[in-house]
Amino acid sequence: MDLGLKGKKAIVTGGTRGIGRAVANLLAAEGCDVAICARNRGAVDETVAALTRTGVKATGGAVDVADLAALRGWIAEASAALGGLDIFVANVSALAQGMDEAAWRRGFEIDVMSTVFGIEAALPVIEGSQAGSIVVIGSTAMAEIYGPTRSYAAVKAALLPYVKGLARNLAAKNIRANIVSPGNVFFEGGVWDLVRERNPEMFGQMLARNPMGRMGTPEEVASAVVFLASPRASFITGTNLIIDGALTQRVQF
């Protein structure tokens, strides 16, 4: 299926590893020019080089998204370098699990503030697109409570009404906004890889919880993100797409 992404311009925050890297790779494979950011300059440069080798225009920046001034500046620079902007994927997460003040502040700054103000910085450029799309990476933690109380779940849940509001208010401008909420996603060097090494009992329990008997891959999540970002999903907006192998038990209306 041709997703209609050839020649489109996209920004992906946190695009050097895991889900963000898989999204950037798939966007490039579909012919989309891509800008990515992350804190590690070496990882950014490696990713940009790999994306460029696919034949698309790629650019990147070493940015801490908690620094909103730096984030805004980079989004402006990246949009100019790409020659416009059609797609914004807000992917960065602090993955803050604790209940102490530092965890709450870090989670709010990264997961909420950088998402909201990253989108606000990108919108003036996206408004010039004929097929504008925003995709926010959420989590099944916002949809179902499991285990101890975590700041992460509440912080991620704050994004749901925000994105729904965007979808309603931007529809007339032909800009769509959606959330993709993954369940447990495994990749080398990721959170669940560390759990597998340090707490194999917990890792086994989480595998057992999923009816499919495994965790997802970044590429499986990226496929949904890229489809939602594409013109093929032109009438899908304001939705929260859960990708979890039937891990969650709630019925979603």
- Give me the strand/helix succession: EHEHEHEHEHHEHHHE
Query: CATH homologous superfamily, by name?
Result: NAD(P)-binding Rossmann-like Domain
Number of helical regions: 9
What global shape is seen?
Answer: globular
CATH topology heading: Rossmann fold
Q: What is the residue-averaged pLDDT?
A: 95
Low-pLDDT residue spans? none
Strand order of the largest sheet: 3-2-1-4-5-6-7
- Supply the helix-strand structural class: alpha/beta
Radius of gyration: 17 Å
Description:
This protein has helices at residues 18-29, 41-52, 68-82, 101-126, 151-157, 159-170, 191-198, 200-209, 218-229; strands spanning 9-13, 33-38, 58-62, 87-90, 132-137, 175-182, 240-243. The chain is α/β, with parallel strands linked by helices and 253 residues long. It has one domain (9-186, 217-243): 3-Layer(aba) Sandwich (Rossmann fold). A 7-stranded parallel beta sheet has the order 3-2-1-4-5-6-7, sandwiched between helices. Helix 2 links the parallel strand 2 and strand 3. The radius of gyration is 17 Å and the shape is globular. It starts with 8 loop residues before the first strand and ends in a 10-residue tail after the last strand. The relative contact order is 0.15.
Task: Characterize this entry briefly.
The protein is α/β, with parallel strands linked by helices and 253 residues long. It has helices at residues 18-29, 41-52, 68-82, 101-126, 151-157, 159-170, 191-198, 200-209, 218-229, and strands at residues 9-13, 33-38, 58-62, 87-90, 132-137, 175-182, 240-243.
